[in-house]
Amino acid sequence: MLHILGLKCSSYGRDLSGCSAAENASIDAYGTAMRTSIAAALASSPHHARSAGCFVSACITHVQSVDNEGHDEWDLRAAGHTPRAVVHEWFFGPQGEGTKAKRQLIEPCAHYPCNPEPRCHGFTRPA
User: Can you give the residue ranges of every domain in the chain?
Assistant: First the structure.
């Protein structure tokens, strides 16, 4: 959030208690825009709608495809699914609408962060 949105109130491993209401609203708007843009790209053509895959968690971590700072993000859960399972279904599974729910995951979120995974510790909002 610091480098993308320029929010100095946020950095990895900190809570967002130092962010103003406007800054928190910017974080939420960014998440909404990302989910909307990705969903539009997935539906942008009949081919994409039939065969594209994605794993978009509501977990603010920088790297989800490698061992990141001592934890393996391939087992991180979002809406009950892991990136490992979603990517496997997209790459190896049968193509078509029947598998769309298994190969396209965009985790809904009213505000960031909303994923309850303990590894989604990058940013937290105070209770």
Answer: 7-124
